[in-house]
Amino acid sequence: MAMLLAWRKAAFSLITVLLVQTVAFGQVDDPWLGIWQAVFVDGNTGATLSSTVTITFGNGTYCWSIPNSTYVPCGSAAGNQMIATAVAPGGFLVTVYSTLSGDTITGTLAQRRPSDGFIVDTSTITLTRLPVNLNFSSVAISCGNGYAYQSLGGSCASQVPQQDFNGTSGFGWVLENSTSRGGNGLTRPGGAFIPPAFNGVPFARAAFLQGLVTMSQSIPGFIAGEKYVLSFYLGSRYANGSNGYDGNQSVAAELDGQVLKTWTLASFTPFTLQTVSFSVSTGGTHTLSFVGLMSGDHTAFLSHVEIKTSTPLGLQLKLSLDHNIINPGVPANYSIPNGIVAGQARATVTAAHGSNPVTDCSQLANVTVSLAAADIPAPTHAHLSPGSVDNVPYPIHPTVGDLSCSNGTIQTTITAGQLSFEAIVKASAPGASDAVQPLRIGLTNLQPLFSISPGVFDVSGITSHPGNGFSGTPGMNAFLNIAAFNISVTQPLTASLSCPNLFPMPIQGISLQSGGLFDACWNGGRSCTNGLSPFAPPHVSHRTGNDVDIGLKSMSDVCKLALQLSIEAPFQAPVPFAVGIYPEKAASPDHTTATHWHVRIPYSSTVATPLTSGKTQKLAAVASAGTPNRPVLANTAFDQTTSQYKYFYSIANVVSEKPIDGFSLQFDQFVSLPTNPHGWFGIAAGSSQGWYWRAIAASSQVNDTGGLPLSTAAMQPGEKIGGFSFENPLPPTIRSFGFHTFTAVPLLDSEFDIEKLSPPASPITGFTIGPRSNTSLSPTAYLDDIAALIAQAFSHGWIDNSGIVTSLGQKLQAVRRALTRGNAKEAANKLTAFMQEVEAQQGKHLTSEAYALLFFNAQYLRAHL
């Protein structure tokens, strides 16, 4: 693509043009392909000038001669100089020093074959504009100590060495010096002013700004609307203030008095390349200034001041992403589950001229990185504009952070929004082809809904988004399968309660395949293809695969509680979690009944609320007469006929000001012959075969106009309930229990209301007894386990006398010595003595839990010696 370049010369300005060969059309066998010719156009007539041309300006002459791609200076006016230097491979560097000003020439670089003049390729030329005396080298420092202030009438012999830089021809800058505000001047490396080291920098002198002073230069030839980049090296004084001076200075770069950027330095800052972009609204001459902002003896140093435009000729950009999938953002009340990748991606851009990498960041100042949507649907509502990720009432679009550059490598961070879609990351620069990379924005751990057996789920009622919106986390899939199984198990109960048949389980939507807002659809393909339609609110909460809508049929409160039991049970073992269940109306405003439950499963970070003795004692004080002050009382009996252990539980609400409507036990064994108190029902908890009882007694009248009901069998504060039991073939160990407390949830108008609610209360947990996992231990290992149970029972307050703990421990040691001697009969006798002491202390210093733990495990061990 041929482009014209405006080339203006400033007084004593240095103009650098980098011309780089590129190979076009694949004609690598053409021996003349690498020959460049410069074609310039007369700025007044538009006529094309020859490849060897002399252009006459008002007060001087330039000449370019271009035989066989070798640039040779040709003629110069007084004070002007042109230098040509080869750059291998594939390019050359032309540097022009000029005393002229106000002249303009425009040009295009073309690559021609000398044989027939065929233009193989065209490229733009890049203008680099530098202020006069950019390195402060045009005037020598006369003072012997290596530095001098701008003169206030003094000399190098003055108490403060001074030199008139401003009055010297060719200096270009105006330095301010003031007896009250501070001073400007120049320094050499290693001078007494203690500047930073000059190693590895392209200059050997620097100006200093001490205090509230300014240095400036008026620069002609700016173009209105053109974009420029100011770059310079900035460092601070290497002093810590102990002698009254330091490098804690702040410096502002200004153009015509308007601040472009401010830098704050600390002492001992080395020379560092700084850049800032700007543009001008008017052409011609503008004044560049550097201003010290700290009053007092605080000094900064700067040098190698450049102002550049455009991007170097023939720039090739390369873009890479450190990973290709990132998270959508989530509402404030959400916590991202563990194990999901971070919500950011890093984009890296590098550039080259042919095979020559660009390592100078100042040449990349006009590179931009942007994000475009490759797969944004046309929504059917006003929250999104077609094809746009910007016109939305909440921050859902991804963003590109500020660019940083080091040694020619540009990096930026892309942060995901709340939509999942295919995006295009694009690196651009004037005169260069765009570099693009696809970026998939979405969650990584979602999977389509699957069932462990046919006919478990019913998604046929969904017409607005068939085949899409049914992806969830692995935990969601596991939950739905267990909940559906629970519904099938409770069918006899629900049938007896005249409940609608909820099996197969009606699913009305989970999350998109890659998560994010439902307001746009992405099904792994382009937009909303394959007959899919865009989603519309209120699916605002279905973003991370942890929310599901379960359809409802007209049902009574008792049927709702039976369904709630099936939904909550999967989360009661091995650790009890709270589950958010929110009755919702349909999206249509004329609906006044709940058409589905929005269920939010708990995250792995959910923490149950442990019991505290202070709360237990406080609530026990208001408990009804005869109510124990322990929340769970457990007893165990052994049936020799069936070889089954029978576990009995009674519970008391001495732990919460709210009603308790759920009681769970966490263990990993199947149970048989479970019993429930009147108005309660129990099923297996979780996948670990714990047990969950729930109060379900309620009205049998159909009622879909309210929120979640409170069971009439729920345990109010201060009340107690017994009648929980089951059987299992294994003796007891210490297990956790959980209490589910009732929190009123109203009938919600839409999912937007869910985000306004507090999360459901965490279950209250504590310790009781329940079946062991196994008894496949050696006698000595089993003995160790019984000893550990003694210690734990004491810590839980089930043994209240340390002397009893010591006595029981001594008896176990006697059993151990007998086992060590291989005398099983003696060990059995010692265990009998242990059991007798346990029986003697039952109800005195041992609770029923401690008795069951110690007696039945000792009995089991004695029977298996």
How much β-strand is present in the residues? Answer: 25-35%
Globular, elongated, flat, extended or rod-shaped: what is the shape? Answer: elongated
Which structural class matches the secondary elements? mainly beta
Question: Overall pLDDT, averaged?
Answer: 73
Distance from N terminus to C terminus (CA atoms, Å) equals 93 Å
> Which stretches are low in confidence, meaning pLDDT under 50 for 5 or more residues running?
1-129, 324-342, 375-395, 519-538, 603-627
Q: Give me the number of helical elements.
A: 8
Oligomeric category: single chain
The proportion of residues forming helix, as a percent range, comes to 10-25%
> Largest beta sheet, briefly?
12 strands, mixed
Question: Radius of gyration, Cα only, in angstroms?
Answer: 41 Å
Number of strands: 51
Explain what this protein looks like in three dimensions:
This protein has 865 residues and is mainly beta. The chain is 13% helix and 34% strand. It has 8 helices and 51 strands. Strands 2, 7, 8, 11, 12, 13, 15, 16, 17, 19, 22 and 24 form a 12-stranded mixed sheet that branches. Strands 25, 27, 28, 30, 31 and 32 form a 6-stranded antiparallel sheet that branches. A 6-stranded mixed sheet has the order 42-51-50-45-48-47. Helix 5 packs antiparallel against helix 6 and helix 5 packs antiparallel against helix 8. The radius of gyration is 41 Å and the shape is elongated.
Kindly list the characteristics that best describe this protein:
6-stranded antiparallel sheet, 865 residues, 8 helices, 51 strands, mainly beta
